[in-house]
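Incident log, support desk, overnight shift.

02:14 A customer reports that sequence design results differ from what the structure should imply. Their input is reproduced verbatim below. On-call engineer (initials T.W.) acknowledged and began investigating.
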């Protein structure tokens, strides 16, 4: 149909081994430190269809079958504005489904914004390289810049004020370490008391422990990179657990303090520590929520999964590998938008994907 530009992309969340927490520029989403993550593999993903049309009156964003409010759409609209050139001010309809339960507390903003960036760029026929895509995704939500790539990914903090050198790069592809498994233990939770955006600002403003973290975090990032290159599981897993502890310590050191870990999270930490008695075979890591991400290897995954599943308050344990990264879906039947009617297709997430 004339005047319509449409594309569908899929991207997966990433889990940080060295965390992004704290911005040096709130508007451009420039971080105070570099971070490093693993992109999850395809069964855990967000599919997003982006349609630009001159017939649309305004931007509209649907997530998991529900039309989002203006406030809930703000990150998406910011990315759309970065993608649209001055001449192409077509409004957009964006329809997104997550393959994982929204209660999973996975970084759906990372996979969603990455899929939007890639799909939007494709729909507009922009020939952007991964670096340029990563810079745009970063301004939707910081950690999204890392979901533009698969495998092991580093987000370099950069030094320029305009953010041109703050983007993600792949340090190893998904094929580098096929034995790695990531267990995701979904823990019963209420809605977050403090959003990660608000939490970061509070930490930067009030935590003196955070200043200490900033002095050391780059050293840990270099160490983690080297341990990945050497596939030194024992020392890598140790670094990962201590980094997670450090992040949650600065949250507690902020004022007023805030907590993402709950009793179930702490019982998971205890279970992983017990599993590791003798030698370190797994690492727990937590983001801005109570769900645990447990990095281990294929030979340990089943036993550990069984043990974690038995912990009271653990709802479900998902299993993932290192993912390949986002992709464009070429088949028109994968679109989540009825192009003629310009409305979301009426499918449940399961049917859609
Ligand atoms: C990370 N997190 O590196 C860290 C670890 C949570 C804890 O990135 O304000 O949603 O949109 O840039 O990316 C979560 O923060 O924050 C996050 P914004 P974002 O994955």
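02:41 Re-run completed on a clean worker. Output:
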């Amino acid at each position: 149909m004339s005047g319509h530009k449409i594309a569908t992309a899929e991207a997966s969340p990433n889990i940080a081994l060295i965390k992004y927490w704290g911005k040096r520029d709130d508007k451009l989403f420039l971080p105070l430190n570099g971070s490093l993550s693993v992109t999850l593999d395809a069964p855990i993903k967000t599919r997003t269809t982006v349609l630009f049309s001159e017939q649309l009156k305004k931007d509209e964003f649907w997530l998991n079958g529900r039309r989002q409010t203006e406030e809930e759409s703000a990150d998406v609209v910011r990315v759309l504005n970065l993608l649209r050139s001055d001449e192409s001010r077509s409004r957009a309809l964006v329809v997104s489904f997550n393959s994982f339960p929204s209660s999973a507390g996975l970084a759906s903003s990372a996979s969603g914004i990455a899929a939007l960036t890639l799909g939007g760029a494709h729909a507009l026929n922009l020939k952007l390289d991964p670096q340029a895509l990563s810079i745009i995704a970063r301004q939707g939500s910081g950690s999204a810049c890392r979901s533009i790539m698969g495998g092991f990914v580093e987000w370099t903090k950069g030094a320029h004020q305009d953010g041109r050198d703050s983007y993600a790069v792949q340090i190893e592809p998904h094929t580098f370490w096929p034995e790695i498994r990531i267990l995701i233990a979904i823990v019963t939770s209420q809605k977050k008391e403090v959003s990660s955006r608000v939490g970061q600002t509070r930490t930067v403003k009030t935590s003196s422990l955070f200043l200490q973290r900033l002095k050391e975090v780059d050293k840990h990032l270099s160490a983690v990179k080297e341990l990945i290159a050497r596939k030194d599981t024992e020392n890598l897993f140790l670094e990962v657990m201590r980094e997670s502890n450090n992040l949650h310590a600065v949250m507690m050191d902020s004022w007023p303090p805030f907590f993402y870990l709950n009793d179930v999270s702490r019982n998971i930490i205890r279970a992983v520590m017990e599993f590791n008695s003798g030698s370190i075979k797994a690492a727990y890591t937590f983001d801005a929520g109570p769900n645990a991400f447990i990095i281990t290897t294929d030979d340990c995954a089943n036993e550990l999964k069984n043990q974690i599943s038995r912990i009271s308050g653990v709802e479900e344990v998902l299993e993932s590998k290192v993912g390949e990264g986002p992709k464009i879906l070429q088949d028109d039947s994968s679109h989540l938008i009825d192009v003629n009617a310009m409305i979301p297709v009426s499918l449940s997430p399961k049917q859609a994907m």
